[in-house]
Amino acid sequence: MVSAALGAYFWVIYSAVRSQTLTDLDRSLRVAENVWLTLSKSQAQSLVAAATGMAGEAGFVRVLRGTDPATLLDYLKDAQKNNPALDLIVICDDQGKARARTDGVQESLAWPDPLLEAALEGQVGAAFWTCPSGLYM
Q: Both ends of the chain: CA-CA distance in Å?
């Protein structure tokens, strides 16, 4: 009888603690999701501004049009040093083929990619992109 009473008491406490823990966990996950979405949106806006600024520089256009891949890569690495938020810079031609990448990967990118296709159509966008060297935004 005492065992049954202790078992019932344990079950009531366990159920209450479990319910409260699940409620707290759900609330924390919703807060974390909102924080993640806000930070991701802010980071995307910052990266778009950096890329737009770099694309608008006269020196960039000159290097892009008239230099070999090694000089282009040197220019990109210098730009990357000046803006630490740019972990990876990939320059593609008008067909979407990578001309230069700052991560040192020589292989072609896995296109077609919706973000690249939008960029080739003149749109600006942001997305998460995974590749063997990491996850990028």
A: 62
pTM over 0.90: no
CA distance 1 to 51: 73
- Does residue 52 surpass a pLDDT of 80? no
Q: Retrieve residue 106's tokens.
A: 């020589």
DSSP characters over 47-86: HHHHHHHHHH-HHHHHHHHH--HHHHHHHHHHHHHH-TT-
Give the separation between CA 38 and CA 13, rounded to whole angstroms.
Answer: 38
In angstroms, the CA 50 to CA 96 distance is 20
What distances in angstroms separate CA 71 from CA 47, 56, 74, 106, 108, one per listed residue? 23, 18, 5, 15, 19
Residue 68: strand pairing partners: none
Segment 59-86 shows an average pLDDT of 80
pLDDT > 70 fraction of the chain, expressed in percent and rounded: 88
Which tokens sit at 18?
A: 């479990």
